[in-house]
Design goal:
The protein is of the alpha/beta class. The chain has helices spanning 7-13, 19-26, 35-47, 53-65, 74-79, and strands at 4-6, 29-31, 68-71, 88-91. It is 51% helix and 15% strand. It is globular and about 40 Å long. The protein starts with a strand and ends with a strand.
Length: 92
């Protein structure tokens, strides 16, 4: 299985360096946030009250690829499903 994350997720998750984080990061595909992805996330933020930029970028990134989002923050990401209805959000 291939796991892709937008690059901004690294900044949210990387609070300090650990061997475990290094190992996990090596197993991920880190997608750069380009202008089109940022615009798509911005439109979602404007539509979904209380949505955050990082959550919107995660959902926009998944929507572009037709992917599933795995998260421990199901509620916030499911609210964004109103803007990205093709993205399935699953709890981990």
């Amino acid at each position: 299985m291939r796991v892709t994350i937008p690059s901004v997720v690294v900044s949210e998750w990387w609070r300090s360096r650990t061997d475990a984080r290094e190992t996990i990061l090596r197993g991920l595909i880190v997608e750069p946030v380009d202008t089109e992805l940022a615009k798509l996330a911005g439109m979602a933020i404007a539509t979904v009250r209380g949505a955050t930029a990082i959550d919107a970028l995660v959902m926009a990134s998944a929507a572009r690829r037709g992917d599933v989002v795995f998260t421990s923050d199901v509620g916030d990401l499911q609210r964004l499903s109103a803007y990205f209805p093709a993205v399935r959000v699953l709890a981990v």
